[in-house]
Amino acid sequence: MHGIVRAQHSIKTETALLFSRYFGNSAEFWMGLQSQYDLESAEDRLSQKLDKVVAYSSGE
């Protein structure tokens, strides 16, 4: 758990199941937290590249 709190390790499926049993909530809750963290981290890393992407237009 120490590595997860310090963002050195991610929450894997098995860990989510164990945490959900221990804390009395769902594994989906823990997987959702990890997914949200991963997306925010990727946005931070790719911010300059994402700023250059032009949205698709169907031309209509």
UniProtKB/TrEMBL annotation:
InterPro entries: Lambda_DNA-bd_dom_sf
One GO MF term: DNA binding
Name of the protein: HigA family addiction module antidote protein
